């Protein structure tokens, strides 16, 4: 345009118009350029926001402001977006600005501000869906569910049902209803044509509330949306839920049923699949509960080939290791789990702590086990899961009970008994305390007293726990030799019932056929002589259900006798007859070598309550007849009486007297008294002591070839220091060093000192075999002359069950 050729007034007007249009056009172009630039990437978006901020500050243009707010929202700068026009009146804002600012306010949880923007949007732009949709959403955010429902209804009235309002309805349902309610709401909206996401949403909700029938219905109705793995997961989760219920109810039949389900799932799934692994891990828990720890161990070893296992699987494995006699392996696993829990949560889970205590106890680390007790909150009450109400704290009782157990196992049974007696005095109706008190009596060798305590507990035990007293009573009956009621229990209970597993283990072990072999050798070094030795072997039959059993016995003795060797022995048949509270033993057979006669013997032991055992025996052609007497064809018959007193597992005493009537006219009289005590114990170390006194008197038989002092007395004491090492795989090793001194008095001879030193090993091979052996040196006295002897002993016991 040529302005110079226009009328001056017209030219002036045109000039003003051009000057006004050009800046506006430039701002609009600049705005559009930066909006386009923002779409190229994150860096460009940041640059565009900065540029539009500057442009808005310079121009105050509404379109620039609208795009600036939109770009800030895109870049996550919600607070900055709200601050762009904090002083603007809502009436000055466009529909897009109101919607964006409402979203920014809602995203930053400024719900009242967001609601205000949405209301303004509804008023000024009623045909804009966002105002009504946003109002429903923000009302749900504010827990104003009735307002949200009203907004939803208004939206549907105005615009009908669409995906956006359905999403808002789902959000409202998720916030206002329980998961079960949400599931019902979503289920009601499903149809045969529902899309996969809608179906899967219901499926996941059903999984969260363990509504397995709903999942099964979805699998059947919408097979196109699910795989075989999905179906296996439903079955696996259903079985896991069933297992929890079975464990809570201690329902062994249900536990076995669940194990079959896990086995089927594992068989139908790929070995490397997650559902296969999950089924095997859960089956480990079920196998432990079913009394099948060996199966748990086998499964874990299979899983371990796939890589590191989670702690809950390791806990199942460790529990199985404890049950199968591998406390050291179990302890290391529990220590690792406890360490990780401390690192993550600053505390050890209560259940893990108890497992760790048990593993320390089985490893004979009682002091470490006691330290772990401090990890429990031992207050009488604790907060429930809501953290609002006080409930009984089970670990208050557990801590006291574990203290008693650890005292008993660590050589302080008296302290443990006092602890529980005090507890029961304060809690006379506590059946679990009475059960433990019975166990303390059982461990102390007081089987009858244990039964009394178990009987007391039955008055207070709930019906579903009566089995505990019954199984422990039967176990104590086995220990006491009261076979009739024990066998009645065995006949009335299924061996598949894991609750009676400990009873059946002890019942079978005590009835099993057994071979025992004991041998001893001694060589005098000053004065020198050959090696004297003896051996005794017995093979017992299986006990009948009444407690009777037969046996075969063989005994051989060899005396070098300074070159004139003497050998004697015997072999016979015997029987143990259970007549509780008495046990009668009879045996008869014939001697061989120097012993040319038949022999017969009978003995009886009577249990006078829990603590006293009375004993009596008579033998025709006694096994204790000296070989030198048999060399002279002198035989002896022996009669004994005795009594033992068992004060506790750490203190016992015994007395006895006997007569041995020799064919040569000698009548040997004997008497003895003995005391044995565990003096001190700390974990695996134990110091025990014994004291024994003997008296012997004989008639003067000048022609007697055997050792026959007119009378003699002997007093000896010994200290035994032992260290017990529990190994894994049901192995246990114990080594003992013994030092003893004594004083020996013989008629017409000076009193002399005696001594002995010895060292031995005891091996326990599971539940079926044990082996012990020892070597030593001692000084004995014969007719006033010292005799120095090297000696050794060997003992073997093997059960066949």
UniProtKB/TrEMBL annotation:
- Please state the span of the N-terminal signal peptide per the UniProt entry: 1-24
Highest taxon listed in the record's lineage: Bacteria
Q: Which Pfam families match?
A: PgaA_barrel
Can you give the residue ranges of the PgaA membrane beta barrel domain?
521-790
Please indicate if the UniProt record lists Protein biosynthesis as a keyword. Answer: no
Q: List UniProt keywords, sorted A-Z.
A: Signal
Molecular function terms in GO for this entry?
poly-beta-1,6-N-acetyl-D-glucosamine transmembrane transporter activity
Q: What is this protein called?
A: Poly-beta-1,6 N-acetyl-D-glucosamine export porin PgaA
Q: What is the species of this protein?
A: Neisseria chenwenguii
Q: What is the lineage of its organism?
A: Bacteria, Pseudomonadati, Pseudomonadota, Betaproteobacteria, Neisseriales
What gene does this protein come from?
A: pgaA
């Amino acid at each position: 345009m040529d302005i110079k050729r226009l009328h001056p007034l017209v030219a002036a007007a045109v000039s003003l118009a051009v000057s006004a249009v050009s800046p506006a056009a430039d701002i609009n172009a600049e705005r559009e350029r930066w909006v386009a630039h923002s779409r190229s990437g994150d860096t460009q978006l940041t640059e565009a926001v900065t540029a539009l901020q500057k442009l808005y500050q310079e121009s105050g243009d509404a379109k620039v402001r609208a795009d600036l707010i939109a770009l800030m929202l895109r870049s996550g700068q919600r607070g900055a977006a709200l601050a762009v026009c904090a002083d603007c009146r809502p009436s000055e804002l466009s529909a897009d600005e109101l919607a964006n600012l409402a979203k920014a306010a809602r995203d930053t949880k400024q719900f009242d501000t967001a609601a205000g923007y949405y209301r303004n949007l509804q008023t000024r732009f009623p045909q804009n869906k966002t105002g009504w949709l946003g109002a429903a959403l923000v009302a749900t955010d504010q827990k104003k569910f009735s307002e949200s429902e009203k907004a939803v209804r208004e939206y549907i009235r105005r615009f009908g049902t669409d995906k956006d309002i359905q999403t808002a309805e789902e959000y409202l349902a998720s916030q206002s209803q329980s998961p079960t309610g949400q599931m019902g709401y979503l289920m009601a909206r499903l149809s045969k044509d529902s899309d996969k996401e809608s179906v899967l949403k219901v499926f996941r909700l059903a999984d969260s509330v363990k509504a397995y029938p709903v999942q099964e219905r979805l699998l059947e109705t919408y097979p196109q949306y699910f795989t075989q793995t999905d179906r296996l997961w439903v079955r696996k989760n259903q079985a896991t839920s069933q297992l929890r219920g079975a464990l809570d109810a201690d329902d062994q039949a249900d536990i076995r049923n669940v194990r079959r389900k896990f086995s089927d799932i594992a068989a139908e799934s790929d070995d490397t699949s997650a559902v296969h692994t999950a089924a095997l891990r859960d089956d480990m828990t079920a196998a432990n509960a079913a009394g099948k720890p060996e199966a748990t161990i086998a499964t874990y070893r299979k899983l371990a080939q796939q890589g590191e296992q989670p702690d809950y699987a390791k806990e199942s494995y460790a529990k199985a290791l404890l049950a199968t006699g591998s406390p050291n392996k179990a302890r290391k696993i529990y220590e690792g789990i406890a360490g990780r829990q401390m690192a993550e949560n600053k505390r050890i889970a209560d259940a893990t702590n108890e497992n760790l205590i048990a593993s320390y106890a089985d490893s004979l680390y009682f002091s470490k086990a006691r330290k772990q007790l401090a990890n429990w909150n031992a207050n009488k009450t604790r907060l429930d899961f809501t953290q609002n109400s006080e409930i009984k704290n089970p670990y208050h009782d557990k801590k006291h009970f574990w203290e008693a157990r650890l005292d008993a196992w660590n050589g302080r049974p008296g302290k443990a008994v006092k602890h529980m007696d005090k507890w029961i005095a304060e809690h006379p109706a506590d059946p679990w305390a009475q059960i433990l008190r019975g166990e303390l009596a059982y461990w102390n060798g007081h089987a009858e007293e244990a039964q009394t305590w178990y009987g007391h507990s039955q008055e207070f035990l709930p019906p579903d726990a009566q089995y505990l007293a019954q199984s422990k009573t039967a176990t104590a009956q086995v220990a006491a030799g009261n076979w009739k009621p024990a066998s009645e229990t065995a006949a009335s209970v299924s061996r598949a019932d894991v609750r009676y597993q400990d009873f059946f283990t002890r019942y079978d072990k005590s009835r099993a056929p057994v071979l025992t072999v004991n041998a001893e050798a001694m060589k005098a070094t000053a004065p020198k002589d050959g090696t004297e030795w003896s051996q005794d072997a017995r093979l017992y039959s299986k006990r009948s259900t009444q407690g009777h059993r037969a046996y075969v016995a063989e005994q051989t003795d060899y005396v070098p006798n300074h070159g004139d060797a003497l050998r004697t022995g015997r072999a016979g048949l015997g029987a143990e007859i259970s007549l509780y509270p008495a046990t009668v033993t009879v045996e008869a057979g014939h001697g061989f070598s120097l012993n040319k006669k038949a022999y017969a013997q009978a003995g009886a032991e009577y249990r006078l309550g829990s603590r006293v055992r009375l004993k009596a025996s008579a033998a025709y052609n006694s096994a204790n007849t000296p070989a030198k007497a048999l060399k002279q064809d002198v035989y002896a018959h022996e009669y004994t009486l005795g009594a033992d007193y068992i004060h506790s597992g750490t203190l016992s005493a015994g007395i006895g007297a006997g007569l041995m009537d020799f064919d040569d006219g000698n009548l040997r009289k004997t008497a003895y008294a003995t005391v044995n005590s565990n003096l001190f114990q700390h974990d695996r170390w134990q110091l025990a002591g014994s004291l024994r006194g003997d008296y012997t008197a004989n008639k003067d038989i000048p022609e007697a070839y055997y050792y026959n002092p007119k009378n003699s007395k002997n007093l000896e004491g010994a200290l035994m220091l032992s260290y017990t090492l529990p190994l894994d795989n049901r192995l246990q090793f114990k080594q003992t060093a013994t030092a003893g001194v004594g004083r020996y008095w013989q008629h017409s001879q000076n009193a002399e000192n005696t001594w002995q030193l010895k060292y031995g090993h005891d091996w326990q091979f599971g539940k079926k075999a044990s082996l012990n052996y020892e070597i030593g040196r001692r000084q004995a006295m014969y007719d006033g002359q010292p005799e120095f002897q090297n000696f050794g002993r060997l003992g073997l016991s093997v059960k066949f069950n």
